[in-house]
């Protein structure tokens, strides 16, 4: 069985909120509005690929520039 490193592990909503420095409630609101970094349900939780979160952030910076 392959082991994932911390860099490859999926992020929980707390980790995404900390990375983006926004409240968790903001991420839930964005998700309802089809905005924000892409995430997927795993059971009852939402998980995020760190690479997708970083790419989403880079895309936001490009739009603002």
TrEMBL record:
Q: By its UniProt entry, which Pfam families does this protein fall under? A: HTH_17
Query: Per its record, how is this protein called by name?
Result: Helix-turn-helix domain-containing protein
Fetch the Gene3D superfamilies from UniProt.
Answer: Winged helix-like DNA-binding domain superfamily/Winged helix DNA-binding domain
Species per Swiss-Prot/TrEMBL record = Actinoplanes hulinensis
Q: Give the top-rank taxon of the lineage listed in the UniProt record for this protein.
A: Bacteria
Instruction: Please state every residue range assigned to the domain named Helix-turn-helix.
Output: 13-60
